[in-house]
């Protein structure tokens, strides 16, 4: 089983990034997927979730209207489009299949001028 995140980096406030998480080794298309983040000195928090078919999504209040979660069940990949980024979005972002307790290694997102 592997979940491999990519797309993180350094971006200025107001900028955008698109995170990807490539899954393998399990039935991705039947799995709920989520993005979490953990900032230094803080607990890991849920950012967004998406149902197995992609029709239902949910977001943390802090990212509603700025982040969009989506998935491609052919490519076995889940995405997190992040727009209008703020310094408080700085964190390590993780994707996971929560009902299977599978986690990726994380990708760093830093929002700074």
| Net shape | globular
Give the terminus-to-terminus CA distance: 37 Å
Tally of helical segments: 0
| Record field, number of beta strands | 11
Beta-strand level of the residues, as a percent range?
over 45%
- Model regions low in confidence, pLDDT < 50 over at least 5 residues: none
Main sheet, how many strands, which sense, barrel?
Answer: 7 strands, mixed
Q: Average pLDDT across residues? A: 97
Q: Could you provide a short overview of the structure?
A:
With 113 residues, the protein is mainly beta. The chain contains no helices and eleven strands.
Q: What this model shows, in words?
A:
- The termini are far apart.
- The chain has strands at residues 2-6, 9-11, 17-24, 33-38, 45-50, 57-59, 67-72, 77-82, 91-97, 102-103, 107-111.
- The protein has no helices and 11 strands.
- The strands form 2 sheets. Strands 2, 4, 5, 6, 9, 10 and 11 form a 7-stranded mixed beta sheet that branches. The protein has a 4-stranded antiparallel beta sheet with strand order 1-3-8-7, with no helix packed on it.
- Strand 4 and strand 5 form a beta hairpin.
- Helix content is 0%, strand content 50%.
- By secondary structure, the chain is mainly β.
- The mean pLDDT is 97.
Secondary-structure blueprint of this entry?
Layout: E1 2-6, E2 9-11, E3 17-24, E4 33-38, E5 45-50, E6 57-59, E7 67-72, E8 77-82, E9 91-97, E10 102-103, E11 107-111
Parallel strand pairs: 2-11
Antiparallel strand pairs: 1-3, 3-8, 4-5, 4-9, 5-6, 7-8, 9-10, 9-11
